[in-house]
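Title: Prediction job returns without error message
Component: structure pipeline
Severity: low
Priority: P3
Assignee: unassigned

Description:
Job completed but the reporter wants confirmation the result is attached to the right record. Sequence as submitted:
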Amino acid sequence: MLERTRTPATAAWTPQKVRWVRHWTDHLFSLAIDRPEDFRFRSGEFVMIGLSAPGGAGKPVLRAYSIASPAWSDELEFFSIRVHDGALTSRLVHIQPGDEVLLGRKPTGTLVLDALAGGRRLYLIGTGTGLAPWLSVARDPETYARFDQVIVTHTVRQRVDLAYRDLFEAGLFDDPLVGEEARGRLTYYPTVTREAFERAGRITDHIRDARLFTALGLPPGFDAEHDRVMLCGSTAMIRETAALLEAAGLREGSNADPGHFVLERAFVG
C-alpha cells in the first residue's frame, strides 16, 4: 500500500492518489486523481497540481491546470502536454495509478458560466490542451439549462492530437446525466493545421471566412445578442479571436461583471 506523505494543516496543497492515466500520443496524456470531499469547484476552473521535489528535498513543483472533469464528478481529471525538459511534465508523463500528485486547495478562474451573460449559443473555442475546460463545461447539466446550442471547437497540428474526439462525436451522447440534452444540441468542430483533414486550417480562418457559421447553418459572424464565447489555448489564438469578437460588438466578461465572452488571463502572456 502506498504510504501517504504527511501534509501540514496549513499547506497550500494536499497529496491525492492517481486513479488512472491515458496516453493519447507520445506527448499528450490525461490523468485523474481522487477528489477530496471538501474540494469544490465550478466547471471550467483551474487549480495548481504538481509533484514533490525529487528525493523529497526542496520545494514541490506545481503548475496551473484546467480541471477537465465536471463539477459533479467524484474524481479530478487533467489533460496535459509533455514538455521535454519541463520541470513538471517531464516527470508527470511517467505517473502511474496509485502514485501521488499534489493538489492545490483553491480552484479559481474565469472560464465559468457565471462570467457570461445569458444567451442562446455557447462557443467553446480551444487549441491543443486548451480543450480541457470544455471537457468540464460540456459535461455540466447547467450548460444545457442555459444554452440551446453548444459548439466545441478544437484546433490541433495533426489528426492524432484530436484527443477526446470519440467523446464529443459519440460518447457524450450516451452520458447518463447530460446525454439526452447534448444530443442534437452539441456540435463538435475539429480543425487540423499541419496535415490534410476534412477541416484544415486555424479556427480563426474558419471564423473569418465563415466556414464555421456555414457548417452550423448560421449567418456569418458572431451575434452579440445571442452568442457567448469562451477561449482557451494558445496565446496567439486567444488574442486573435478576442479581437474578432470585440470587432463584432462582443464584450469581455468576468466573475464580477458577466459579458459576452471570457478568456483565462492567467494563461495568457
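Comment from assignee: result matches the submitted record. The first strand starts at residue 13 and ends at 23.
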